[in-house]
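sorry for the late reply, my laptop died twice this morning and i had to redo everyting from scratch. anyway the thing you sent over, i finally got around to it. pasting the sequence first so we're on the same page, its 32 residues, then the predicted structure underneath. double check i copied it right bc i was rushing
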Amino acid sequence: MRRLLGMAADMVTRVGGIGAGVTTVSTATEAA
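ok and here's the structure:
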């Protein structure tokens, strides 16, 4: 599960930029 979230966060970082990636990681961390 965590690996999947990490892959999703990496994709968001590449597509949306570092800011979006950090936001996704923070949200995923809080949700997990």
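The radius of gyration is 9 Å.
thats about all i looked at so far, will dig more tmrw
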